[in-house]
Amino acid sequence: MAEEISTQNAVVTGGTPATTSPGHAGLPTQVAGEATTVSAAATATGGVGAGNFIEVDIDKELFKFESDDTPLMQLMLNAKKVPVNSPEIQHFAIDQARPSVVTNAAVGDGTGNVAVLPLDNADKKLLQPYGTILVKGVDGYASDGKTKTLGKDLMLFITDRDKVSGNPIAIAVNGPKNEATDDSCLVPEIPAGTTLVILANAMFETQKEVLPDFVVPSPSLIYAQKRGMNSITSDYFESVAKRIPFSKALIAEAQIRNFKTKGNRTLWASRASKFTVDTELGQQTVYTTEGVRWQIKRHLDHKGKWTFEEFISIAKMIFTGEDVPKSVVMLCGKNFLESVQCIDFSKHPEVQISVKTNKLGWQVTAIHTVFGEFEFKREPTLDYLGWSNSAAVIAYDRLVHYVYSS
């Protein structure tokens, strides 16, 4: 799931009028543009001088312009904004807490009262002292310590942490006993690969404090890329309501379209980097952002035609599990969209297909399944980038737009 977008849209007005250069047909329709002169009075961080930023509310108009052709930028402009004070941002993609861990070796033989649970390094801190654990696939015992309770799992209680390995130390609360009157249980064999489901902690009567059981994830470093646009008109969005020369309107629209489509490609495929360049103001730092394509952590590779069963499997994967989004949009390349369109839904009348306008104003194809609803939207940029066979599932409520402004 792609739950983050990092970029900055600094749109510059004024400056030297752009020159035109011939396009493929030899017509002056491709606007190359020239660099806008940045005043020496601009901030030393390389920011655009005061008065050269288009007001923030330009996003509303920019949002409406060519909205169908730049879906990822539309999502960025619609995402919750987080002001930051540096172009270098620590981004946390925090998933829901994991409900279980898996042992990597066998432990317990029914003769000892304690067991050091063998876990991978990343899982050790998920089990804290005074926590309870359900051991899936290992039967517990009745209170007499002799009768197995078939189908009723063994439960463990974490007492401490091993000083050497860092693995949690556990006792059984419904394990076997040598004698029915014994106060403590023995730990039966727990095979390698056993799933341990994390339950709530169990505190003693006068206990008031417990260790935190939330593991803080490591952040990923994201760079805010500063982008600008040299506009030939002083303010197209204000002037468009008036009668402006037709040729200037065409050029202004071409510039804005070019700005949004290049920005959309950047949001998809740019690679993160940080480097220094020499300028009139001395050495300055340039940042390029990391594209969403490279931020996506969950991948599903598929070959051949899509079937109904595989399509439902995607729905199950997305809408069940530890972190379930409220709604998702699938931004699709043309070949992927064709494959989905050719799935035979005739034998499954419970799957509803409809065309609707979503909350971003797009005409989307909505496919409703028992697990949840997909919104399908063609993303032309994926075709331009050579990813026509791919699609990205993006949750509306998982996006963040970091904004760094001087």
Short summary:
The protein has 406 residues and is an alpha+beta fold. It has helices at residues 58-64, 71-78, 236-239, 246-269, 292-295, 308-319, 334-341, 380-384; strands at 5-6, 8-9, 20-21, 30-31, 80-84, 88-91, 100-102, 114-116, 131-141, 148-161, 168-172, 195-201, 220-223, 226-227, 273-279, 282-288, 328-332, 352-357, 363-368, 373-378, 391-395, 400-404. The chain has a six-stranded antiparallel β-sheet, with no helix packed on it. It has a five-stranded mixed β-sheet with strand order 18-19-20-17-21.
Write the layout of secondary structure elements.
Elements: E1 5-6, E2 8-9, E3 20-21, E4 30-31, H1 58-64, H2 71-78, E5 80-84, E6 88-91, E7 100-102, E8 114-116, E9 131-141, E10 148-161, E11 168-172, E12 195-201, E13 220-223, E14 226-227, H3 236-239, H4 246-269, E15 273-279, E16 282-288, H5 292-295, H6 308-319, E17 328-332, H7 334-341, E18 352-357, E19 363-368, E20 373-378, H8 380-384, E21 391-395, E22 400-404
Parallel strand pairs: 1-22, 2-14, 5-22, 17-20
Antiparallel strand pairs: 3-4, 6-13, 7-12, 8-11, 9-10, 9-12, 10-11, 15-16, 17-21, 18-19, 19-20
Helix pairs in contact: 1-2
How many helices in DSSP terms?
Answer: 8
Structure class: alpha+beta
Strand count, sense and barrel status of the largest sheet are: 6 strands, antiparallel
N-to-C series of helices and strands: EEEEHHEEEEEEEEEEHHEEHHEHEEEHEE
Strand order of the largest sheet: 7-12-9-10-11-8
Helix content: 10-25%
Give an overview in words.
This protein has 406 residues and is an alpha+beta fold. Among the domains are: 5-83 and 228-269, no CATH class; 100-201. Helix content is 18%, strand content 28%. The protein contains eight helices and 22 strands.
